[in-house]
Amino acid sequence: MADPTENPGECTVSVPRAQLPNALQAAALANLADAQGRYLIKSIAGRGGMGQVMIVEDTVLERILAMKILGDRFKDDPAILRTFFDEAKITARLQHPNIIPVHDLGEIAESGQPFYTMKLIDGVSLGDIIAKLKVKDPDTLLKYPQGALLTIFRKVCDAIAYAHSRGIIHRDIKPANIMIGPFGEVLVLDWGLAKKADVAAAPQGRVHDFQAGEGDSLMTMEGTIKGSLAYISPEQAMGDISKIDRQTDIFLLGATLYHLLALQPPYPQRTLDEILFKAEKGDFLHPQDTPNGHNIPNALASIILRSMAPIKAERFKSVAEFISCLDSYLSGRNLSTLRKLRRGEVLIRAGEHGDETYIVVSGKIEVSREVDGRPTTLDICGRGAVLGELATLTHDQRSATAVAVEPSEVMAINRQIMFDELRKLPPWLERIVLSMARKVSGMNERIHPLLVGSAAAAVIKQYDLLLKVAREPVPRDRLYAEAAENIAIPLEKSIEIGIILEEENILHADGSRRLSPAWPDSLQQLLSYSRRQQRIAKGLAPSTGKEEFFEIAKVPALEAAWKRLEKL
Questions:
Q1: For position 399, what pLDDT does the model report?
Q2: Same domain, 438 and 462
Q3: Alpha-carbon distance 27 to 549, whole Å?
């Protein structure tokens, strides 16, 4: 048979029972494939330091698979053979949607090279995606915003949590070993360094003595140091294999998340000596201090730092705990803190730069600002109202002051958390939200004229219109609320004006708290009376002869109501 590593065409591989070294025969011989000519080699998918991966056709089941073949020069090395077969068996044992499935294990008769077959993934590695994001490839930026990357990473965590539940640790988690399929599949690959968590892993076979400057920090290193140098944990860097356990995988998950968000690995140095010197102490750059770290949310930076703690006891106790913190971030839980306010306590002060947004949980908050030297109430906010969101988003000065008018509670959401949540949106939607915030912030400078001056006339007109349309008494609360909503003023202003009209017998309330004009056209007459009084005050109308315009018996009520309204 032609050497498959040199033949780019197709050839058939004979797969008899394996002929393994004596030390492995008893353990593996009965489990190997016995299928003459089953696999048709289509092409070479890639080569690595230990062998190559071929694309093959399974002629029995008529499907395309990947076949990993151990390099010819390693086929007689018992330690490497054991590692190769362990990788196949461990991976096959881990039946999880996010772990690549292994189908077959055997040996190529002609060359004596062992192989195993697995699902062929037509996709791209997470490492390749990160590389494109780093150079700001527009298509990649659009397809993989931070939220999409975190969804991918979340599935990786599921795979590792499952492996740990089966007593297996990976030991080489990194973006290059995570494959993304065209339909959203996420698969953790390369379980070549995996081992049982409860089995001591003393060095076996050859022990490599790596020299400074040898190899690539992103490549997986065998020997005393097992793992990829760019992500390596302190216990791996020190070569203390007996201390490599589930906590090591947690470190590697954090290092992978570091690379995913910072767009560079924790140890980007090129020489072995530099990396080991830093890795033994966990001396990596804070993720937010990297060139791309300004986009890393505080919550995610905290997850990275905790998972990559140099002291194992300070890391997450399990992948499940890691996932819980990640899910809290992804779902928006634990984003706010509850604050209690005393009556009269200032929540927001005009002129300050705000870093928090508030949601009223209970009580009432008065929002006011000074207009022409005079304090002007803009709104009275109750349960569910949102305060301060524009200044938080735009980082402008606060435009108004907010004070608790009774004991109140608010949920406080800081600026960093708001932007963390915005980054979960598609980039275009995040920009729309921020653009709208800036535009509305500018509009907010223009005060509603009815909030600065008297709103009495406008409110009375609304009462009159609503009552005439209804043609019957209207429930008090509905009348006040609809009038306020129609002219966009606080409900409290409408209520204050309505109470005056009731007390001065301009509006009549029946036993069911339903309102109607106290006499026909009472509201229109009040408006007319008010306008006349204003003209008299300006010298534009005589002060006598009121009986010519209004029924004399009604004038006292109109005058009393007007005097109270003009003070508002």
A1: 78
A2: no
A3: 113
Query: What integer pLDDT is reported at residue 173 of this predicted model?
Result: 95
The four Cα atoms 463, 467, 470, 471 give a dihedral, to 10 degrees, of -170
Confidence of residue 271 (pLDDT cuts 50, 70, 90): confident
Specify if 310 maps to a domain.
Answer: yes
Q: How far apart are alpha carbons 379 and 134 in whole angstroms?
A: 47
Q: Which two tokens stand for residue 277?
A: 């010197």
Say how far apart CA 380 and CA 362 lie, in whole Å: 12
Look at residues 316, 331, 346 and tell me which one is the last residue of a structural domain: 331
- Distance (Å, rounded) from C-alpha 98 to C-alpha 100? 7
pLDDT at 372: 60
The position carrying tokens 């730069």 is 353
d(CA 71, CA 53): 10
Instruction: Please check whether residues 229 and 299 belong to one and the same domain.
Output: yes
Mean pLDDT of the chain: 80
Residue pair 51/192 in contact (Cβ under 8 Å)? The answer is: no
Domain that holds residue 410: 337-447
Catalytic residue, chosen from 104, 172, 190, 420, is 172
Are residues 212 and 89 located together in one domain of the fold?
no
- The values of phi and psi at residue 237, to 5°, are -65, -35
- Per-residue pLDDT of 217-248, as tens digits, reads 554 444 445 567 889 999 888 887 778 899 99
Report, in this order, helix, strand and coil percent for the chain, each rounded to 5.
40, 20, 35
Q: Of 70, 90, 119, which residue sits at a domain end?
A: 119
Which of the four pLDDT bands, split at 50, 70 and 90, describes residue 207?
very low
- 61 and 132 both lie in a single domain: no
Q: How wide is the angle at C-alpha 13 spanned by C-alphas 7 and 14, nearest 5°?
A: 150
- 19 and 163 belong to one structural domain: no
Kind and range of the H or E element at 61?
none
Would 369 be classed as within a structural domain?
yes
Residues 199 and 307 both lie in one domain: yes
- In this structure, are residues 120 and 69 in contact, taking their beta carbons and an 8 Å threshold? no
Q: Using a cut of 0.85, tell me whether the model's pTM lies above it.
A: no
**Dihedral pair phi/psi, residue 124, rounded to 5°:** -135, 145
Catalytic residue flag (residue 172): yes
Calpha distance 163→194 (Å, rounded): 10
Q: How far apart are alpha carbons 6 and 25 in whole angstroms?
A: 29
CA distances in angstroms from 24 to 32, 86, 194, 197, listed in the order given: 12, 11, 19, 22
Q: Which among 457, 451, 426, 429 has a CA at the least distance from the CA of 534?
A: 457
Categorize the per-residue pLDDT at 287 as very low, low, confident or very high, splitting at 50, 70 and 90.
very high
Measured between alpha carbons, how far is 121 from 125 in angstroms, rounded to an integer? 10
Residue 139 buriedness (CB in 10 A; 0-12 / 13-18 / 19+): exposed
If asked whether residues 106 and 250 sit together in one domain, one would say no
Does residue 198 contact residue 144 with C-beta atoms inside 8 Å? no
Please indicate, yes or no, whether residues 530 and 436 belong to a single structural domain of this protein.
no
Cβ within 8 Å of residue 519, ≥6 positions away: 554
